[in-house]
Write a structure and sequence with these properties.
By secondary structure, the protein is α+β, with helices and mostly antiparallel strands. The chain has 26 helices and 16 strands. The strands form 3 sheets. Strands 9, 10, 11, 12, 13, 14, 15 and 16 form an 8-stranded mixed sheet that branches. A 5-stranded antiparallel sheet has the order 4-3-2-1-8. It has a 3-stranded antiparallel sheet with strand order 5-7-6.
């Protein structure tokens, strides 16, 4: 039985019908004909890559240079038809002097119907059942619409038995059913045969199609949820959030992204949340050749089904990569069934990832709201623990209070679900501030065991090894973190720090300069580079580095202390004294870690005052005391027996 297949492409509010050569919006045709229609169709059907100007000219204008302007006008006509703007492109991406790419929403609809001949044969069969006669179709009937009512016709034709008719009808029905199943599949559209094993992937930030900045938290949160789910797949390397989000709101080809991140495939897509509905579309692109490995249907679901959508996408990606994610066992229950709690959690993640004091306060409120709605929401407790831990550095929170809150939230998360790597990492941080180094190592190793793709776990483990003065091991762990998160500025900067603590200063400087090259406004990299210069005795360069950092981030207590230490090392005592005076004045207005002032007093040879401040720091469990073994500012105190005693009470090995 012949079958006619009719395809249409849903482009957000538009519908493009290739067979009829027409573009429709809200049942009204949009004027676009000839070359513009052909070029638009070509861009849509090759949306996985950039179509170069030369390629389009060769295909539609026989490559003649005289028509280069015609191509530009053609694309302009397409933009006009789609109400697309060059500076805020939603459908057609333009790369000057290179080419064009379709970047808008996309859904393919396929209808199968019997050909005109088969329609008439079916009508004839129905006639047979009713009248036991068949007539050949008249020529003009080939254009009758599919739903035209059958007419009873009596003609002198060959008479068929009822058994023959029934068998024919059954075969026709089976053919249609099989074809429909092939088209429908399992809700996804594999574009080609399965690829060879792909063992690395990056999930790019899903585009927020609402255009409302207040909905960014939802699209970002969906992206993080997919990263988390896919990172659970054994044997699959998943690039961490920091590197993936480097490409947020940037029009970069998936193949270029994949090459920069060192992965074989990239998952990209969009999210549109409106009221109690959510629409998600994603596709998996091969970095090697730009081929679409797997593309989802547009998931248009009730918001309450968002957890199901995430699972279906993760399963579809894993299956396409020939990896195991969804077994025959009962699917894992989501961390919460409450959509309101989930949205509060996503808002908490959004603010947490900004790594700023005011945003951390908002994140704490969001996570608290999430657990108030669902007291069994383990992930929200883990997020709360991470906020309290980071709050010591960014808000800053008083250490003893923050340590207690970090530990309580992390333990609650683990009690609800022991399989959350983030909760174990937060608990490890709390233990380290309590100087419980045995449990610190235990929890960090547990976090890595749960999620081998969790870059932050390796990063934190490296910091722990630095504290314990195990430089070679620290370098190995932070390099592993860098493999999983190659564009993370904090990780790259701490690669340099690990080299510096190992006295490999040239490599440290190279790492810091690379971080600055990636983001010249990243103050921490400038400060750490200055610190390396200080350790190398390059005081002028060190001072310039800290002046740059202060220009970017302000006169923080840490930076003022560092300036004082460099002045003291350079023999510029008066200027060093000004920095100490500034710190003392700061402490009257805000929290200043006593260990910072202790280092400056040590630089002046005032050991009694320095040790008095260090005792104060020990009593409040100041985070800076974790660096007693590796911080150069404590060097003047190391010969004093009181320093060895302090190391013992903090649980660190003797220097």
């Amino acid at each position: 039985m012949a079958v006619e297949v009719r395809k249409s492409y849903i482009l957000g509010p538009y519908t493009l019908e290739p067979n009829r050569c027409r573009l429709i919006r809200e049942n009204s045709p949009i004027h676009i004909t000839g070359k513009p229609f052909q070029v638009l169709l070509y861009l849509i059907e090759h949306r996985d890559r950039l179509a170069t100007r030369a390629e389009l000219l060769d295909r539609f204008w026989e490559g003649r240079d005289v028509y280069d302007v015609a191509l530009s006008k053609c694309v302009s006509s397409i933009r006009k038809a789609l109400d697309d703007k060059l500076d805020t492109a939603r459908f057609i991406e333009t790369r000057w002097a290179e080419g064009y790419r379709y970047i808008g929403p996309f859904e393919e609809q396929v209808e199968q119907e019997a050909s005109a001949l088969e329609v008439e044969k079916t009508r004839g069969l129905r006639i047979i059942v009713e009248e036991e006669y068949v007539s050949d179709p008249l020529p003009h009937q080939a254009t009758l619409p599919r739903q035209a009512p059958a007419q009873t016709v009596r003609t002198a034709g060959p008479k068929l038995s009822l058994g023959t008719v029934v068998v024919s009808l059954a075969l026709a029905a089976i053919a249609i059913a099989l074809f429909a199943l092939l088209l429908r599949g399992n809700g996804a559209r594999p574009t080609e045969s399965h690829p060879a094993m792909i063992s690395s992937i990056a999930v790019l930030p899903l585009k927020n199609l609402t255009g409302d900045p207040l909905q960014e938290y939802f699209s970002d949160g969906m992206t993080e949820s997919l990263i988390t789910e896919l990172s659970k797949v054994n044997g699959l390397k998943v690039i961490s959030r920091a590197s993936a989000f480097t490409f947020k709101d940037r029009e970069v080809a998936s193949r270029d992204v994949g090459k920069r991140l060192g992965v074989a495939a990239v998952l990209e897509g969009s999210v549109e949340k409106s009221g109690d509905r959510v629409r998600v579309a994603v596709r998996l692109v091969s970095v090697a050749d730009g081929r679409v490995i797997w593309a989802s249907n547009n998931y248009d679901r009730a918001l309450r089904d968002v957890f199901v959508v995430q699972d279906e996408i993760s399963c579809g990606v894993a299956a396409s990569l020939r990896l195991m994610l969804c077994s025959n066992e009962k699917p894992q229950k989501p961390y919460t069934d409450n959509v309101e709690a989930y949205q509060a959690y996503l808002q908490g993640l959004y603010h947490l990832n900004k790594r700023k004091g005011e945003d951390l306060k908002k994140a704490i409120a969001d996570f608290q709201q999430a657990v108030a709605i669902d007291p069994n929401y383990a992930l929200a407790y883990a997020g709360l623990a991470e906020c309290y831990n980071m709050g010591m550095w960014y808000i800053p929170l008083e250490p003893r209070e923050a340590i207690a809150k970090t530990k309580a939230a992390a333990l609650k998360a683990i009690a609800l679900d022991d399989g959350i790597a983030e909760a174990h990492e937060a608990l490890a941080a709390a233990y380290s501030l309590d100087w419980d180094w045995t449990n610190t190592r235990k929890e960090q190793e547990r976090a890595i065991e749960i999620n081998p793709s969790y870059a932050q776990a390796y990063h934190a483990y490296s910091l722990y090894l630095n504290i314990q003065k195990e430089p070679d091991e620290a370098i190995a762990e932070v390099k592993h973190a860098q493999e999983l998160d190659p564009l993370s500025l904090p990780i790259l900067t701490d690669v340099g720090m690990a080299y510096a603590f190992a006295h490999r200063y040239d490599e440290a400087v190279a790492a810091y300069k690379k971080a600055i090259e990636l983001d010249p406004t990243y103050a921490v990299a400038h400060a750490n580079l200055a610190d390396a210069y200080w350790r190398m005795g390059m005081y002028d360069e060190a001072l310039k580095g800290y002046e740059t950092a202060i220009g970017l981030a302000g006169r923080t207590p840490t930076y003022v202390c560092s300036l004082g230490l460099i002045y003291a090392s350079a023999g510029r005592r008066a200027e060093a004294q000004k920095m100490l005076d500034e710190l003392n004045q700061m402490s009257e207005q805000r929290y200043v870690p006593p260990s910072l002032k202790a280092m400056l007093y040590a630089a002046f040879g005032q050991r009694n005052q320095a040790f008095s401040l260090l005792e104060e720091a020990r009593a409040e469990h100041s985070p800076q005391l974790m660096n007693l073994l590796i911080e150069q500012g404590f060097d003047p105190l190391r010969p004093d027996p009181r320093f060895a005693d302090l190391l013992r009470r903090v649980g660190l090995p003797q220097s």
